[in-house]
Amino acid sequence: MKRTPFLNFLALFLLNIPLSISFNANAAPPIVTKHTKADGGKLVGKIVESPGNVGVSFATIALLASKDSSLASGSVADENGAFSIANVTPGKYVLRVTNMGYQTLFVPNINVSAEANLLDLGNITILPEAQKLNEVIVKGEKSMIVDDIDKKIVNIGKDMLATSNNVSDLLEKVPAVSLDENGNPQVRGKGNVVVLIDGKPSNLYGSDLPTILQSFPANLIERIDVMTTPSAKYEGEGASGVIDIITKKTKIRGTNGGLRASLGSKNNHNASGNISYRLGKVGVNASLSGQTRNMTWKRNLSRDNFISENTSHLEQTGTGGNKGKNAFGRIGVNYDINDKNSLEVGVNYSRDQSRNNSNLLNETSFSSGNATEKFNRLNNSKGNGENLNFNLDYRKKFDDKDHQLTFTSSYSLGESDGESYYNQESEIDSLMRNQQNLRDNKRHSLFLNSDYTWPITKKATLEVGLRSRMSANDNTNSFYNMSKETGSYVFDPNISNVFGYKDATYTGFMTFSQKTDLWGMRAGLRVTDYNQDINQISINRAFNVHFLTLVPSLALTRKLGETAQLKLNYSRRVQRPEADWLNPYTDVSDPRNIQSGNPSLKPEFTHKAEMGYSNYEASGGWGPSLFMDYSNNAITRIRTIDETGISLTQFANVGRELSYGLETDFSQTLFEVLKINGSGRVYRSEVVSQVAQIDNRTWSYSGNLNAFVTLPADFKASAYINYEGPRAIAQGTREGVFVANMGIRKELLEKKATLSFNVQDIFLSRAYKSQLNTATYSQNSLWQQTNRLVNLTFQYRFGKISASGGDDA
């Protein structure tokens, strides 16, 4: 790959926060020993946890003066928990012990006399943060929505988990987020969303995002961050925004885990299990999940073609089904080298199988009176894919709070293959055909990232980072037509394709944050050097694309009280063409509506601005805002018709897209038995292109609502509704989509288990309709899922200690 010079950044390499507080009156009596040391007394002891009095590594010990709690001295325990504090002036003290994952502990009444210079405190027992004495404490759930300076944080609680099998189910319950007909996330009803998993690109886990999201068990997720105007720290891609899915991390000692099994209608089943264990400096977590999927659908298309004098009308009616199986497994090990350095390694593996079939009836009539062309096209396809991902992360903490250096790396490799067989039946001999399509894809990618956070003062922070991502993709699509003479398949070079794709992205960013009692500010700049090599091997054509982009961001906040604030945000975004959008392979699975990539695509640039108010407390709150998105050189699908009435759909750069409106999200607990959350928006959307003769403008509205109700006998019911209103697309209008789900659950076995019953798409209303109108054709189309999903799910949680951010057993 062609390399170009890039900016060189110099990273400056220049703790503990008490999580809960307890007093210990049960420390062993101190052993006093005469000592002749003239320069002060000495304290020794050992920090342990029960059972077994196991030493706790690297606990922080502070010696406080009894009279005013000022810091007199301190130390850090060694890897076995032993500590010593020398040169202690005679007097009365309190010993404070802190360590990540444990309650802060105070040992009072420590007397250091002038005569007895060595004081052995013996074993000092500290308790995990979720445990007090011998009880398990169930933590209160966090506020569902937290409004940060440049993102909305949605904490995943028990209510959301009980009605969600996977990450796709969770995303539908997140304010402002929805899924399109293929399962890809949308923000404010629009695609082009970057999805990260723990800050890393989701494509490291596989090539098909909907499959990745369906494979990830919901109970592994701690929170979901939604950024509609992301700061320069995050990916510059994603015209609609960034979604970062944060998984649970085990920070405290103990064992915890869970099992989940779900039986669903029409063979939609899934099962998963996860376990985490931590002792001393080492923590291990592992999970495994499997799923079977079965979806049926129908589609209709009606099109009038008037590109020539002999106008024609196409009518299509189709049905089909998609079946699939997938498995996902992950294992991770984290190791605390000492109190300031930690290391984590992990491996993820996924495998997917799909089996699809469809039946598409085509009927074309002509105004000239020519005979109607009618044929039925049968399709049977199957595919297999697998992906392997390795992660290595390092974190270094410095003495002052929030001062840290992180390094993350990830390497991923995967491959997929598939084959499709088309049998076209017709009474017209020229329309009869049998075809075969064989597909093969191999890919690998490397991701490297380093972030340095420096709290310059208590209220000012500088963060800098370097990031590089390199990937390679090799696609082979071979198409064959069956010879009527020999009955064997003959290779068709006209629609076959061998496509090679490589890209390399080198990025540096810097953000500066400043806070006062009333004001907050975060400004940033992201610089990206992007190289793209495209090789159309089948036609011996190769070319390189290179560009440099600047992505600035700015966020301002003004406090109006303890929880209320005003916000003003701006961010510039870039949408670079994806490999599938560029691949010129022609998909003829529907011979009347073919699709192809466009290797001439250019990047799309978007300016995003928001101004809003938010007020969130533990019981709930709301956050209304005004927003505007303006895209230049916008990438969208364009459909053209040739004189035979066949359409070609490609991604293309059109003129501009503009969207502006009012949005609000909210969450609230009412009467202690009802929790609601959701979002709603009213907005104007415009798509304009003088070159393509497009001028489409509409007002639209959308919203979603989640409700969780506590019923007698410890039952809980839930309901979810989502409506995406009509909106303008490049050549017409996408009609509104309504979805409703509901469920009921009961906790069992002293709240260690949950049994739930859920129904998705109650009214079978998940129908996607569009209307296209141009100078050469007019078209109405429908795609709709036709099977309602009903499932019964049992979950069991075990362990006395909860994972960070998770639900307690």
From TrEMBL:
<dbReference type="Pfam" id="PF13620">
    <property type="entry name" value="CarboxypepD_reg"/>
</dbReference>
<keyword id="KW-0813">Transport</keyword>
<dbReference type="InterPro" id="IPR012910">
    <property type="entry name" value="Plug_dom"/>
</dbReference>
<dbReference type="InterPro" id="IPR037066">
    <property type="entry name" value="Plug_dom_sf"/>
</dbReference>
<dbReference type="GO" id="GO:0009279">
    <property type="term" value="C:cell outer membrane"/>
</dbReference>
<comment type="similarity">
    <text>Belongs to the TonB-dependent receptor family.</text>
</comment>
<dbReference type="InterPro" id="IPR039426">
    <property type="entry name" value="TonB-dep_rcpt-like"/>
</dbReference>
<feature type="domain" description="TonB-dependent receptor plug">
    <location>
        <begin position="163"/>
        <end position="242"/>
    </location>
</feature>
<dbReference type="InterPro" id="IPR008969">
    <property type="entry name" value="CarboxyPept-like_regulatory"/>
</dbReference>
<keyword id="KW-0675">Receptor</keyword>
<dbReference type="Pfam" id="PF07715">
    <property type="entry name" value="Plug"/>
</dbReference>
<dbReference type="InterPro" id="IPR041700">
    <property type="entry name" value="OMP_b-brl_3"/>
</dbReference>
<keyword id="KW-0998">Cell outer membrane</keyword>
<keyword id="KW-0732">Signal</keyword>
<feature type="signal peptide">
    <location>
        <begin position="1"/>
        <end position="27"/>
    </location>
</feature>
<keyword id="KW-1134">Transmembrane beta strand</keyword>
<dbReference type="Pfam" id="PF14905">
    <property type="entry name" value="OMP_b-brl_3"/>
</dbReference>
<dbReference type="InterPro" id="IPR036942">
    <property type="entry name" value="Beta-barrel_TonB_sf"/>
</dbReference>
<keyword id="KW-0472">Membrane</keyword>
<keyword id="KW-0812">Transmembrane</keyword>
<feature type="domain" description="Outer membrane protein beta-barrel">
    <location>
        <begin position="396"/>
        <end position="796"/>
    </location>
</feature>
<protein>
    <submittedName>
        <fullName>Outer membrane receptor proteins, mostly Fe transport</fullName>
    </submittedName>
</protein>
